Amino acid sequence: MKITDLAYEVKEGLTISFQAIRANKMRSVLTTLGIVIGIVSVTLMGTAIEGLNRAFNESVSKIGADVLYVQKFPWMFGGDDWWKYRNRKDLTLKQYREVKDQSTTIAAVTPVSGRRLTIKFSSRSSDGIIVIGANEQYILTTGATMDFGRFFSQAEANGGRPVVVLGYTVAENLFPSESPLGKNVKIGGVSFRVVGVLGKQGSFLGMDLDNRAVIPISQFMQRFANRWRGLDLHVKVADMKELENTKEELRGILRKARGVKPGDEDDFAINQQEMFIQTFNKIGVVVAGIGLFITALSLFVGAIGIMNIMFVSVSERTKEIGIRKAIGAKRSTILLQFLIESAALSLIGGIIGIIVSYPLSLLVDQILPTSMPVIVVLIAILISVIVGVVSGFLPANRASKMDPVEALRYE
Amino acid sequence: MQPVINIKNVKKTYIMGSVEVNALVDVSVQIHKNEYVAIMGPSGSGKSTLMNIIGCLDTPTSGLYEFNSVNVGEMNDNELAKIRNKKIGFVFQTFNLLARSDALHNVELPLVYAGMKRADRRAAALQALEHVSLSDRMHHKPNELSGGQRQRVAIARALVTNPSIILADEPTGNLDSKTGIEIMALFDELHRQGNSIILVTHEEDVARHAHRIIRLRDGLVESDHMVESRIVHEVTTATG
What we know:
The complex is a heterodimer.
Chain A: H1 3-23, H2 25-63, E1 67-71, H3 82-86, H4 93-102, E2 106-121, E3 124-134, H5 138-142, E4 146-149, H6 154-159, E5 163-166, H7 168-174, E6 184-187, E7 190-198, E8 203-204, E9 207-208, E10 212-216, H8 217-223, E11 232-237, H9 243-258, E12 269-272, H10 273-316, H11 318-326, H12 331-367, H13 374-400, H14 404-409
Parallel strand pairs in A: 3-10, 5-7
Antiparallel strand pairs in A: 1-11, 1-12, 2-3, 2-6, 2-11, 4-7, 5-10, 6-7, 8-9
Helix pairs in contact in A: 1-12, 2-10, 2-12, 2-13, 4-9, 10-12, 10-13, 12-13
Chain B: E1 5-16, E2 19-31, E3 36-40, H1 47-54, E4 62-67, E5 70-71, H2 77-86, E6 88-91, H3 103-113, H4 118-131, H5 147-159, E7 165-169, H6 177-192, E8 197-201, H7 204-207, E9 212-217, E10 220-226, E11 232-233
Parallel strand pairs in B: 3-8, 3-9, 6-7, 7-8
Antiparallel strand pairs in B: 1-2, 1-4, 4-5, 9-10, 10-11
Helix pairs in contact in B: 3-4, 3-5, 4-5, 5-6
């Protein structure tokens, strides 16, 4: 068949399809519903996965590649081990000082502990603020910047001065129209003087990083610590090329400080971003898998709907098929015509699906930093056409193989 | 001169359930260019089967069918479709127009399947519609046209490819007698202009327009004679 012939047949097929779809509006709309749901599922899933990746990448850059997190719990473990990790001894400030004094390969180290508390200023009050106890090097390990003011100094940290650095959101809520610098806020009933405000950091998997306040660790331990709240060490590596050496050095110092016998396993974990990435990727695969399954299922249901209605359409139009064959339509022509019709039906469903998904993707955007990627739209269109062609094949094949004499006799 | 249609000892057998039905027992017919032939016979005589075979909608069980000296019996589906498209113009009792397309597109359709360019298609379809005096109705859908007009559109569709033969199956069967006469006048004119026409009918009035009448009975040619000269030809299997 010549290319031009094919082009005419495709064009004719499109014309017929839209005539047929227009002639059966209600039926067509109901049929495309399955595809609409399938495509909404495809686009939202794509958007959500894109959003998860983006959120993750942003978060990862926030926690920094060169920071090690010394904690009781490793970031990856099986459910059975929970109690083992839970029962480990907490890290202590003494151990922090051992690390600080003995390590030669670290750029910064800070003890970190946190707790949700209420912060008040005059008549204003903010609930659920994560109050973090740390030393002056916290600003180095967290990668945060100062919006204004300053971070508390080493002297203030060592001296356990009642000073606080507020997160961006906290400062905004408590001091909507005045400078917080030098003001005294009440944290859990204790007065702290504001010395600075952290720069805006955004959110981390839906958690607002700006909704926090940092105070010297000794103040925290004295006022807010309790036995359920452990202590972490955040360690910034001096040279990423020496990462493994730094980890070894840390292990050595901590094993000694915590009295771990030679041959026993570590009773602490040194976590780093890489482990977070691995864990995340595992979750990502599961989420994508479930999403794919739901999507495939709804598309399958949609495809069956299209196949069903195409069989009806073919049988209703037996006479038309007979006429077309009598005046020279080949088998391939009839096949193509019905494939185009079924693809067009599915494509309409796909386009409606994309239109419906757009506002829904804005909802997803509230949870994850994302927008509907163009590639997802293109994939959705492609998928709907493929679904149409595949589900239209059997009915179209039946139409193409009709005997013209029989078909013409059909009333 | 080579006949357009050369049918020799054609037999057509259908299997209906477990019974074999001999629709055509042994039929031999030759039709030449510019002939005006009526095929007649009561129902069950095999005239529809013969028409389907002549029209390349069906193939014989045995025997020879040559169309323009080409053996149709050996053709595949695509080749048959091509012959129907380019060489045969069908006119049906029930018009068989596409309900959702306007007159112009109905007439154009065979040319779409023939792969003709859009502009050429348009021109040819318009000319064919003019030929049947319907160019002012080209954008009407079939349900906006009278029975006679619909049949004219169908005739225009049959003419548009400039076929070797026009095959009309009871073309006046669904029309009132006045319109029927108009349609038959149109066929007469088409014949005068050089077209070859085969009418399948059971109406003597319609058949009388033709110059030659082939009568079938029980799957056999009962008689084959010229109308004007009233000379009855004995048909033998030796013809051709």
